[in-house]
Amino acid sequence: MQAFDDAGIRVYALSYDEQEPLKDFAAAYNITYTLLSDPGSEVIRQFGILNTIIAEDDHPWFGIPYPGTYLLDSTGTITHKFFENNLAVRVGPEQLLRAFRGESLAELTTPAHEEEPKEEPEAVTASVYLEGESLALSVQRELVARLTVPGGSHLYASPAPQGMVAVDIELDENPLLVLRDIVRPASETHSLKGTAETFEVHHGQVELRLPITINGAVTKGGGPNEVVIAGVLRWQSCNDEVCDLPVSNHFELTVPVDGPVLPQIRVPEGKTTNEPRAGEHFQQMIHRHKNKIQENNE
Amino acid sequence: MKVEVETRAEQTKHGWADQDGFVGPFRPGNGPRNDPRGAFPTGPDIGEKMPDVQCVDANGQAFDLHAQRGDAPALFIFFRSAVW
Question: Out of A13, A89, A278, whose CB is closest to B83?
């Protein structure tokens, strides 16, 4: 939240909850942004994003939106929007801030690390890191692979010409991780002198981004408090005369897993919770909608 | 827009795992697990002016998005619920 404040971005979050549950929610999790209450789902309907695949008589659930986020510029124009098919996956704060800074999710527009060596490397250098400090349930973060290609050389973009290896991240099978499609930079068309053959390549700074979410299954029975993100970063570099052998760099990152921020509507006997009244609010939510349907029928 | 419901799932010892591996007590396509498959409505498009939002905040104060925002850029989040 500090990062959004620093960037001068106002943050508003709207749900179909009554005011009381929102107040409790804000107090329980020290929320400083503005929470908005839309118990009749009027704003949600106005936007046309009411989840209509939930039946109207499915009392507690009906009225939710397809969850999503709009990013507005200073004139109030929508510059980005983020919606996911899976209700358990949300865009992460780093992705939102990148979007706000105008860094397209698909292209590296600025060399990101100032401290990078200024002199030209003789061979391709590569690093892999997770943007953000941890993985948390629902919050999407990106595994970033950054490569620097010496002048005069190129990496093969995906798909590579036959017999060549495209730059790619391949994660080891891990049931704790949910992956989305990898985001690649735009490629350039390259042709070898004296031939008609063309193919797609990357030059200079190359950045691949793999959106990752932690699987909800890990929270069952407590779950681990860290996860190992392991895999291989592959590439092959060539200049117009020679091609280097393909490189497979194995990487392994151990990342903390943050617990879920979910209100507990059923608290086991003897346990405490951040939000003791969540169960009560849930019951009210069921009645609210039942009553409304009854009124409509009368 | 006709929205198709996501029902693909696998039963695991912890419950029903959806296509992304998320596990829940219900099979996808039921109650809180009604996820859309494929295209679904996502409201106004990029490049359009954000519609004004008028409602109340958590403290019962009247809220008007564009008036409150002034000239500041903003994130506007529609989330499921603070209760469940």
Answer: A278
Please tell me which of the candidates B12, B48, B53 has its beta carbon nearest to residue A78.
B48
On chain B, the residues whose CB falls within 8 A of the CB of A53 are 3, 5, 34, 36
Answer yes or no: do A51 and B43 touch at CB < 8 A: no
Residue type, A62: F
Least confidently predicted of A33-37, A244-248, A263-267? A263-267
Average pLDDT over residues A129-157: 89
**Terminal CA-CA length for chain B:** 27
Query: Could you tell me which of A89, A41, A112, A78 has the C-alpha nearest to residue A213?
Result: A89
Q: In chain A, what residues touch B68 (CB-CB under 8 Å)?
A: 10, 34
ipTM of the complex: 0.91
Cα angle at A293 between A266 and A46, to 5 degrees? 90
Q: Which domains does chain A have, with CATH numbers?
A: 1-66+266-298 (no CATH), 104-262 (2.60.40.1250)
pLDDT of residue A112: 43
Is there a contact between A10 and B75 if contact means CB atoms under 8 Å apart? yes
Q: Which residues are registered as beta bridge partners of A89?
A: none
Place of tokens 């107040």: A23
Cβ–Cβ < 8 Å for A237, A155: yes
Does the distance separating the beta carbons of A216 and B78 come in below 8 Å? no
How many residue pairs bridge chain A and chain B with CB atoms within 8 Å of each other? 232
Q: Inform me whether the pLDDT recorded for A119 exceeds 70.
A: no
* Nearest CB partner across the interface for B18, out of A74, A86, A285: A86
